[in-house]
């Protein structure tokens, strides 16, 4: 299979006729109408994404998807749930909820889970795997700080698969990082991977969740919770969205109201995001978070190695000391 043919295959899977059309689709995925550092940077900051738990109706179908399409390893599986990860590190929990209602797109909740490849070459290898296995895609884009591909799992949970550029290439000005939604250099990615065969048997051991992107009902209220109380620092704001991080990563968390402005409390019985965890490097950070949460009147529950709380729409967040 030549590079050009693989490129056309990827465009077909993304439902696009050209790279510019695919960039427009990726822009919609990000709400934008206008050498790799990898997870070693994203996951050594004082606070970073740990695990994600989703409620799903068809456990087998969704678990198989993350195994086959993304390459996660099934670490545990039962009648009621499954745990998947990479390199022995658990990243995704799935909980069977056969009779659950589907969470609406305009509700608060998950926008996408972003799986961060260790290197740009790994992203290219995965693209070849996606093309050869006809994995449906929804768009691709170059965000300046990273290169990204978008898709959805069988129950509509958004996914981003991406690779970071080296942090020294990111451009910062007055605490704001430059990001955009440009055309992805598919040919350059594929040239790193080779297109004759796919050697992507599973996700690389260094794959991690680099960031979470959430739908919220109100940006200011979400910012007060995730920045003021949890302690993330803002890195970029734009119409209808904000991005936050720890340790000058471009973003560990995206929040937007593109579909969900005015959304009320989430339905705990519906499908979608049940909880995600933040790994906390220092005990004093966790203690300060707990104090701010109590001062804000948020419910706080003790769990193993940390605490659990909920954002204003009921998305549960676990703060775990590592």
TrEMBL record:
InterPro entries: Glyas_Bleomycin-R_OHBP_Dase (IPR029068), Glyas_Fos-R_dOase_dom (IPR004360), TAT_signal (IPR006311), VOC_core (IPR037523). One of its GO terms (molecular function) is dioxygenase activity. Residues 1-25 form the signal peptide. The keyword Oxidoreductase applies. Coiled coil: none annotated. Keywords: Dioxygenase, Oxidoreductase, Signal. Residues 48-164, 208-322 form the VOC domain. This is Ring-cleaving dioxygenase. It comes from Bradyrhizobium jicamae.
């Amino acid at each position: 299979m030549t590079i050009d043919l693989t490129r056309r295959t990827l465009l077909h899977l993304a439902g696009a006729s050209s790279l510019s059309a695919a960039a427009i689709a990726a822009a919609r995925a990000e709400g934008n109408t206008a050498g790799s550092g990898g997870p070693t940077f994203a996951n050594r900051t004082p606070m970073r994404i740990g695990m994600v738990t989703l409620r799903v109706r068809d456990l087998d179908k969704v678990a198989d998807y993350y195994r086959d399409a993304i390459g996660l390893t099934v670490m545990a599986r039962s009648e009621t749930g499954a745990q998947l990860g990479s390199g022995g590190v658990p990243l995704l929990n799935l909980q069977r909820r056969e009779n659950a209602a589907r969470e609406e797109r305009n509700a608060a909740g998950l926008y996408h889970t972003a799986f961060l490849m260790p290197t740009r070459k790994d992203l290219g290898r995965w693209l070849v795997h996606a093309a050869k296995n006809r994995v449906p895609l929804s768009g691709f884009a170059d965000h300046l700080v990273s290169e990204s591909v978008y898709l959805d799992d069988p129950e509509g949970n958004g996914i981003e698969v991406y690779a970071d550029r080296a942090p020294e290439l990111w451009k910062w000005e007055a605490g704001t990082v430059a990001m955009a939604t440009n055309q992805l250099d598919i040919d350059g990615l594929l040239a790193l991977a080779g297109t004759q065969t796919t050697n992507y048997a599973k996700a690389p051991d260094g794959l991690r969740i680099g960031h979470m992107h959430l739908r919220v009902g109100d940006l200011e209220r979400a910012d007060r919770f995730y920045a003021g109380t949890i302690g993330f620092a803002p890195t970029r704001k734009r119409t209808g969205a904000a991005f936050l991080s720890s340790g000058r990563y471009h973003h560990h968390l995206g929040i937007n109201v593109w579909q969900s402005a005015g959304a009320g409390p989430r339905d705990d019985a519906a499908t979608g995001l049940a909880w995600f965890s933040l790994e906390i490097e220092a005990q004093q950070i966790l203690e300060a978070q707990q104090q701010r949460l109590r001062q804000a009147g948020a419910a706080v529950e003790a769990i193993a190695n940390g605490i659990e709380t909920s954002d204003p729409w009921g998305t549960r967040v676990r703060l775990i000391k590592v």
